[in-house]
Amino acid sequence: MRKKASLELQELGALASIIPSHEPELKVSIRTIPAAQDALSRSMIPVCEPMLCGREREYVLDCIDSNWISSQGKYIWKFEEAFSRCCGAKYGVACANGTVALHLALATLGIGAGDEVIIPTFTMIATANAVSYTGAKPVLVDAESETYNLDISQIEAKITPRTRAIMPVHTYGHPVDMDPILELARRHSLYVVEDAAEAHGAEVRGARIGGIGDATCFSFYANKIITTGEGGMITTNSEEIARLAANVRDHAFSEERHFWHQYMGFNYRMTNLQAAVGLAQTERFDELVEIRRRNAALYSAQLRPIPGIVTPKELPWAKNVFWMYSILVENDFGISRDELQRRLAERGIETRTFFIPMHLQPIYYEAYRGQRYPVSEELCRKGMYLPSAATLTPEQIAFVAESVAACRG
To answer: Pick from 59, 186, 191, 305: most CB atoms within 10 A?
Structure first.
């Protein structure tokens, strides 16, 4: 049996207080909403859910009727072409999920044991794990406080002769400023592999995320802006990276003869059924992005006046797609973030706390023992995101905002 990482909270000392408590139990809320919304007035508001109201059913039924349900079929290449085009990239390589997209990209670039990859400590565990799967070491950088993305000013100090790549994460939908990262990578001959799981449609100075770095990796989990249920994709402008990644995702079968393998391959394929859903979603790409942005504008207008609540930013050079509507709960709100989450749950409003940084994770704690990343630690203590689905109504957003205001201590 695989050994479980052990870390008791008391080992963290004062840092133990920033680790979120258990998710509170949600209660059905009876809310005062106009009669047209009465069906919603007795249900909980989930933190996120997919919006499947295009041609998803039609395309999936076509897969079933034609018997093309596995990893071959027209929807695979149609989805790859459509999604990569929406991202401003020449090539797309669909795969099983966003985590394996990250691993596949790194493996395709030849990153392995003894190498180092610079990542933010403030990220979802998949970012660090994908690096670890290759045998390379994740090297951590703190976040900056405006966008919660990695602090670019700290990257160069972390570069060593073992560094092979920089992996920026476009956190909660706000893109990283890619220009200085690309310049750093050029000077040090490093790859740039972007984790864009949360940033479908985000832009840097008018350039879409997906065609900027050497490879960009997306997730299509059910809560993402574009979803296939599970699924992922690498986008790139490199024909060589796309060709090799497509081969390695499918056991690295040789073109010379079947069952002949010259590379270590993986079974990271996407099914035609998933791609059918993804294509239907991609046909509404811009619409789904704009719904997230519209909902964010409604939230911000109602939450900004509340003392102690910090709403998410959109810097002048960026297009933030607000994958999740994230807030910080400051001390002058009067109650803690965890208490606000508990009170919202009593009203049937589901929320999530921010990421726990990598250097505080049980499986990585020993590797980074004694390292401190103060901005990421504060984000972990204060941050949460509110219901963010494209299916939200203005009335639901108003109810959530009014509930936040009512909970203030």
So the answer is: 59
